[in-house]
User: What shape does this take?
Amino acid sequence: MIICTDEIHCTGCSACQSVCPRSAIQIAEDSHGFYRPMIDESNCIECGLCQATCPANGTTSGDMKMVCRRVLAYQASDAERVKSSSGAAFWTLATYVLNNGGVVYGACFDEDFRVVQRRCASVDDAQDCRGSKYSQGFVGSSYVQAYNDLKQGLDVLYSGTPCQIAGLRSFLSKKNYSGQLVACDLICHGTPSNRMFRDYISFLEKKSGKKVVKYLHRPKDRGWGVNLEKAVMDDGTVLYDTIESNIWRTLFYCNDGLNVSCYSCQYTDVNRVSDFTIADFVGVNKVHKDLNDDKGLSVIMVNSDLAERIVSKGVFEPGSTEISLDDVLPGNIMLTKPSTPRRDVEEFWRAYERGGIECVAKYEGAYGFMRSVKTYAKRLLRK
Assistant: This one.
């Protein structure tokens, strides 16, 4: 049984697993650590539900996509933004839903630094969903959980990558939960393998002789827009702006280790699959420098009647400013085209298979003698 008619478009969204009436599909990691459906042929009845539900087979085209109505620049309070990667748009929307008796699904790290979609029924539960997560997330049973919540009459905010939202909408199919389900995606750069990220955590632990207890992508120690990474160790020490702690930044932005489906992503479009689309306001200084206080500024695309109703309730007030889509496009090119690799993707994975994180970091110029020389020179110039 083949689920995706073209398997290079499989995003690992788990819609097929969620819809299978015989539990014949499991989501497992492939040789590079990306999530893929694995079918137990002995339990499969070839009903075709998985193929019909798979977003990669074309069910996301047409009526699933929504035209952006308007765009906001948003910055929450200083106290909220310091805990968020950008302007705290997700957190503002999440607390609105939670404080009105709903539930939130968002990405968080588990104890092994896997990125998982977690169900949160309180503001305290949702704290770990704050901040960016730069590797592929595991949907698990969250689609089924969200469906059960909706059947119980609960309002649900489901936040994820566009392909995860498309998977959820495909799984729910024609079921009408208008006004209950609030979908929020992001302008997605692409998703590296989470196994590779976990290997990177192990690399940091081996080099330092300490255990990583917390990891932050793009913390604001030096302000918003400084793309550095931060690892907090079990003895309270911090790795920040070191050669080792900056490796993941390079591996993420080089684009060579993304899921193969990211290179032909069907969601790099101004027409969206979610009610809201959020992102950093990259390039704000070229169009609205007056809005940038270096503490974080989000873009919010308002894509549906439901999103319009939520905005009209003042959820993002104070702190929102109406802007144009044209203001956003230059700094968020993934609204118009997918990410492209910087170097040779096959050689990237051969390097990873040969020597793991250290080898692939050297291949990308993020580690080794020359990186040490360049880092030392930059620090001298900074002084």
